[in-house]
CRAL-TRIO domain-containing protein
Amino acid sequence: MEESQELALTQLRKSVEKLSSSTEGYEKPTLMRFLIARSMNPNKAAKMFVDWQKWRASMIPPSGFIPDSEVKDELETRKMYLQGPTKSGQPLVVCKVSKHFPAKDQLHFKKFLVHVLDKSIASAIQGKEVGDEKVACLIDLQNITYKNLDARGTITGFQILQAYYPERLSKCYILHMPGIFVTLWRFVCRFLDKATKEKIVIVTDGEEQRKLEEEVGLDALPEEYGGRAKLTAFQDVLLPLTTP
């Protein structure tokens, strides 16, 4: 297995060079994420890697991260929370959808999503980034109304995650799914790849709730969901200036 991985990594590096780019500065764990996301196909992984490099260059400012000030209006809704670490040492991102409303400016909304993902991953870094840090997510649909429904925003979030953050999501828990969200979710699922679908758990009964508590851990899980932690809004979490 190790030998086949090394061969695939060598082929990936060569394929990236053929696409007029370079893997210099990127360690094995980072490159393996792209290979795993493309079923260990070096050529497909190389294209994904180069597309990701170009996307980062166009989306992220020279500082290496999108500051709070650029997405202040989205943060002020206090719909996103950063908890953790979970039992497996991962950050837990909590989204209260009842505080979300569809964005008028889609580019601005994408920057907010990138800000959330980058900061979440950065919070998992212990000293130096390894490259395979993962994030768990909890989506709370309690008390949502039709005004909160956002098929476009939901699809955009998952597409960014799949295309530019391969193998970063460990698990996504969806709680309190009401009937008004079911049709929208079926539509969203058309845009999800198999690997993403397998990481999504819709918590509907006591057994799934027990698994949520066991996997996340009561110390990381907020009180609202059966744990012992207090919710911490995204902007209230201070991190060193480290970016993935």
User: Anything to note?
Assistant: Residues 1-59 form one domain. The first helix runs from residue 2 to 18. The chain has two domains: 1-59, 68-236. The mean pLDDT is 95.
